[in-house]
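Let us work through a complete example step by step.
Step 1: write down the sequence.
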Amino acid sequence: PDKMWKYKDPQTGELKALKVDERFIKSIEERLQLKTDEQRETFRTSIRKIYGQKIGLDPNYDFMDNLELVKAVTDVRLKSDIAGAGSLIGALANRTNEENQKLYDRMIDTMLNKLGYCRTCAQKTIEYFCTQEDEN
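Step 2: predict the structure and record it as tokens.
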């Protein structure tokens, strides 16, 4: 179940509500190997503190300087994007199959248009992700 989180916008001073996707956050915390409630709460507190400090200086701050967090979010997003669609490695290895090509194209599109990747970075990230999955 998603929660609503209220915060004061540092730019306007008005109170805003933000929907928090608990499943997504828990998936990222699992990817970061935060196992206990205490570890998760410490991590969340540090993220809120960093955001509070940086948003005042840069209203467009997006956490892209936290490489561990970016990798975890990317891994979770890629895994969720291919859920139920078979093996990502198989899809990338055999893009002659129309479904696999559509899956790959959808992943690239998501990374370009929703996550802000350039095309080369999106392709390299997928290759890296597949290499890591293959090694595990």
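Step 3: interpret the result. Residues 67 and 73 are 10 Å apart (CA to CA).
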